[in-house]
């Protein structure tokens, strides 16, 4: 293999090394002999430089008409379309998920770019009639300033696009720290913006680790809003840091997502959805189907059929034709999966399938784990309560819809949920009573689209949403404007009392 390429931070329109001169390796989790690249191991000084560049660029960008900002984002999406296959290949190499999925990841960034470009000609406010004569009133959005964005490794282009494009269309400038496991895909996204003509300093990218680069970005006094996607544990820490400076904050964190399967469900449809929801992206989605809550009448049959279907999954390097599931992202995450398999065994759950690391042949050079199914799981078991973020699914038998909904809601998270049923009354009761940010009917817990709000309740987030027009609330403040053209003093409610 050729020598790996060395990448640089992008600060103020220039490619620069970390001030320390340090770098870290980005390795292929499917084959750790493959070094994808060397990236700057940045620190607080680099963050300070990037925030200063974003601050200097802010006023001119804020005053650029929003439709013109949208045109740049639109061009960036067109560039992403042209480079889709190249960027998907890069993503599979650094993140591990199979090519079909990384192509979808790039496509999601394309979709978000086109969608947000259109918001440059909307960014709707509200006009309302005044209670007084000869007075006009309306509300408008105003940008906040420099946005500090911290992205995860599992969707290394899609999720940064959820953050960067809305921030830009609203007139903000950006400093983004990509996940240290997958920086290249975020670099590729930023490169598309550069090539689309984005002015210098409007977007800055600084790579590095959470404590040394992420935390300085969060606490920097000139960063006005922070958007973080990652674990609930780290999200709590970020929340506390932001609270000290009253920063605007958007959190999108963990999930323990349930799929309810009623006894009247189409089991062929369930089977396809459950296997895809549980093992797509090796279970490394915050929306992954980690619990199948099955009516007891069909639980045994569903378990048997899931076992047979899951056995057919081809696990391996996602760059190879026909592979359906890739590796865990790194050794640490693989260790978490193995730990929870052990916990499930110790708790008395029935290990239906899998449970072991895969290490034969070329798989020995990657972080591969068998797709794993536990049956006869009790709702209180740790494997039914805690996020695993790996290819492990628990099947929990229940006796009624009411019990199923109660079990579904009985976890610390509330991101995504699903119900499979042919009974419209059951479907509507589930849509009403499932306390999650996303509910699917006759579809798995994964598959959100960018033009509806994305996010969850409880330990999943802080009430903010990504996607849809609701994301604009993260990156703007509301301003109410009153124009009195009466030529005299009108004292609102005082003069309007009679």
Strand and helix layout:
Elements: E1 5-6, E2 9-11, E3 14-16, E4 23-28, E5 31-40, H1 44-62, H2 66-82, H3 84-95, H4 99-119, E6 126-129, E7 135-143, E8 146-150, H5 158-169, E9 173-177, H6 183-195, E10 203-205, H7 210-219, E11 223-229, H8 232-244, E12 248-252, E13 257-261, H9 267-279, E14 289-295, H10 296-310, H11 331-347, E15 350-353, E16 357-358, E17 368-369, E18 372-375, E19 392-398, H12 401-409, E20 413-414, E21 416-420, H13 424-433, E22 438-441, E23 457-458, E24 476-484
Parallel strand pairs: 1-5, 8-9, 8-11, 9-10, 11-12, 13-14, 13-21, 14-19, 18-19, 21-22
Antiparallel strand pairs: 2-3, 4-5, 6-7, 7-24, 15-18, 16-17, 20-23
Structure report:
The structure is a single chain. With 498 residues, this protein is an alpha/beta fold. 36% of the residues lie in helices and 23% in strands. The protein is built from 13 helices and 24 strands. The longest helix is centred in the first third of the chain and has 21 residues, at 99-119. The chain is globular and about 80 Å long. The N and C termini lie far apart (84 Å).
- CATH-derived architecture of the largest domain: 3-Layer(aba) Sandwich
Please identify which CATH superfamily of the largest domain we are dealing with: Aldehyde Dehydrogenase, Chain A, domain 1
How much of the sequence lies in strands comes to 15-25%
Tally the beta strands: 24
CATH class of the largest domain: Alpha Beta
Name the average pLDDT.
97
What's the overall geometry? globular
The CATH topology of the largest domain is what? Aldehyde Dehydrogenase, Chain A, domain 1
- Put simply, the count of helices is 13
Helix content: 25-40%
Strand order of the largest sheet: 15-18-19-14-13-21-22
Terminal CA distance: 84 Å
Structural class determined from secondary elements: alpha/beta
């Amino acid at each position: 293999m050729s020598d790996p390429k060395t990448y640089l931070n992008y600060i103020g329109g220039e490619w620069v090394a970390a001030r320390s001169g340090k770098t870290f390796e980005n390795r292929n989790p499917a084959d750790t002999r493959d070094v994808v690249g060397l990236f700057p191991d940045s620190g607080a000084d680099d963050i300070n430089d990037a925030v200063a560049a974003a601050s200097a660029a802010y006023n001119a960008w804020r005053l650029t008409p929003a439709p013109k900002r949208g045109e740049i984002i639109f061009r960036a999406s067109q560039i992403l379309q042209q480079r889709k296959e190249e960027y998907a290949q890069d993503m599979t190499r650094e993140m591990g998920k199979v090519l079909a999925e990384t192509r979808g990841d790039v496509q999601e960034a394309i979709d978000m770019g086109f969608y947000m470009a259109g918001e440059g000609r909307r960014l709707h406010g509200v006009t309302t009639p005044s209670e007084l004569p000869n007075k006009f009133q309306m509300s408008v959005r105003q940008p906040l300033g420099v946005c500090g964005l911290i992205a995860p490794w599992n969707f290394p282009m899609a999720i940064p696009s959820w953050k960067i494009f809305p921030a830009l269309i609203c007139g903000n400038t950006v400093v983004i720290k990509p996940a240290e496991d997958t920086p290249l895909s975020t670099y590729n996204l930023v490169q598309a913006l550069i090539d689309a003509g984005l002015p210098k300093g409007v977007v800055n990218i600084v790579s590095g680790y959470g404590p040394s680069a992420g935390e300085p970005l969060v606490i920097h006094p000139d960063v006005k809003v922070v958007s973080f996607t990652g674990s609930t544990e780290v999200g709590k820490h970020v929340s506390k840091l932001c609270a000290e400076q009253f920063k605007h904050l958007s959190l999108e964190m963990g999930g323990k997502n349930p799929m309810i399967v009623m006894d009247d469900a189409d089991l062929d449809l369930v089977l396809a959805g459950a296997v895809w929801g549980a093992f797509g992206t090796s279970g490394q989605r915050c929306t992954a189907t980690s619990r199948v809550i099955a009516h007891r009448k069909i639980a045994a049959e569903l378990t048997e059929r899931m076992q047979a279907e899951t056995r057919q999954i081809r696990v391996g390097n996602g760059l190879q034709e026909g592979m359906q599931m890739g590796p865990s992202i790194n050794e640490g995450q693989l260790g978490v999966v193995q730990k929870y398999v052990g916990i499930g065994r110790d708790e008395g759950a029935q290990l239906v399938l899998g449970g072991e690391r895969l290490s034969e042949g070329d798989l020995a050079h990657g972080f591969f784990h068998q797709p794993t199914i536990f049956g006869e799981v009790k709702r209180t078991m740790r494997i039914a309560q805690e996020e695993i973020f790996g290819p492990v699914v628990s099947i929990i038998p229940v006796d009624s819809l009411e019990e199923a909904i109660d079990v579904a809601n009985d976890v610390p998270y509330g991101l995504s949920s699903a119900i499979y049923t042919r009974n419209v009354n059951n479907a509507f009761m589930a849509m009403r009573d499932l306390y999650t940010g996303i509910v699917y009917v006759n579809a798995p817990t994964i598959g959100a689209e960018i033009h509806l709000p994305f996010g969850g309740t409880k330990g999943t987030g802080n009430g903010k949403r990504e996607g849809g027009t609701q994301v604009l609330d993260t990156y703007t403040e509301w301003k109410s404007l009153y124009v009195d053209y009466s030529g005299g003093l009108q004292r609102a409610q005082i003069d309007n009392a009679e």
